[in-house]
Specification:
By secondary structure, this protein is α/β, with parallel strands linked by helices. The longest helix has 13 residues, at 114-126. It is globular, with a radius of gyration of 19 Å. Strands 3-2-1-4-5-11-10 form a seven-stranded mixed β-sheet, with helices on both faces. It has a four-stranded antiparallel β-sheet with strand order 6-7-8-9, with no helix packed on it. The protein contains seven helices and eleven strands. The two termini are 34 Å apart. It binds S-adenosylmethionine. Residues 3, 5, 16, 40-43, 46-47, 61-64, 67, 88-90, 104-107, 110 line the site of S-adenosylmethionine.
């Protein structure tokens, strides 16, 4: 089981370059509060950098040194210093409290046991100011996800990386451990020039899926009041057709 993104850092942006539908949502949330913002699992800065550029006072936390290094390189020439700290969300130790904590894009689902989830939520509650808000997003485990065959690599996308006919091809394959609600995904990355295969490598990661009612009880058990469950980043309320849940939680 891999939840360490070090082996991923150099290709993360390429694999997830298509994900931008949540950025405006976080920009709006950040501009609606005055205080400090903490981002958990900031990774290579997909959300961190737009928030920082928009003037947010943001601290980024990640447990992967290599993801943090990638983000550090991107913001190296920035005039406004940004705080990026290597820490594990299950055991946060920061001298500061925050008005808003965000845990974007599957980050919470890297916590693979209920014990890890409870430790993380307790740790986050202790780093929020009274009345502070926590935003967590989860994908809804739906039929399409489980319909995948685990012996097939599905095509994700191709991207050109040279002026000539060089390209990189991404495929993914997924195995399910339904007893523990775990999804093991393997990404294959092949590099081609014309008809020739130049290199092939794999990166893998594991996520835990949560059902919506399970998440509701977990968040309440850990001392949060559920302010809103949206089913999309435009604020559409969660319903049976939603593919995501976007949770706004307030410290009780
Ligand atoms: C799916 S990536 C999301 C990165 C970025 N927020 C984005 O939206 O593109 C999840 C990130 O969470 C980090 N992460 C996983 N487990 C963590 C933990 N226990 N504590 C802190 N960060 C963690 C990973 O290293 C990774 O950078």
């Amino acid at each position: 089981m891999n939840t360490n993104y070090d082996s991923w850092a150099d290709i993360y942006d390429e694999v997830y370059s298509f994900v931008d539908y949540d950025i405006n949502f976080y920009l709006q949330k950040a501009s609606s509060i005055k205080g400090n913002i903490l981002e958990i699992g900031c990774g290579t800065g997909r959300i961190t950098i737009p928030l920082m550029e928009n003037g947010a006072n943001i601290t980024g936390i990640d447990s992967s040194q290599k993801m943090i290094d990638m983000l550090g390189t991107k913001v190296a020439n920035n005039k406004v210093p940004i705080k990026i700290i290597k820490q594990d969300v299950r055991d946060l130790e920061l001298a500061q409290k925050f008005s808003l904590v965000i845990f974007p894009y599957r980050g919470f689902q890297s916590l693979l046991t209920v014990e890890d989830q409870v430790n993380a939520l307790n740790s986050l509650r202790n780093h929020l100011e009274p009345g502070g808000k926590l935003i967590i997003t989860l994908f809804v485990p739906g039929k399409d996800l489980f319909d995948q065959r685990s012996d097939i690599f599905y095509h994700l996308r191709d991207s050109r990386y040279q002026e000539d006919n060089g390209y990189r091809s991404l495929h993914h394959r997924t195995e399910f451990d339904h007893h523990n609600q775990l999804i093991h995904t393997q990404i294959s990355i092949t590099e081609h020039i014309g008809d020739y295969l130049i290199s092939k490598r794999y990166a893998d990661f594991t996520l835990r899926y949560l059902y919506t009612d399970e998440a509701r009880y977990l968040f309440e058990y850990c001392g949060f009041r559920i302010e809103e469950i949206a089913g999309d980043y435009d604020g559409t309320p969660y319903d049976r057709d939603s593919e995501e849940t976007i949770w706004s939680l307030v410290v009780r």
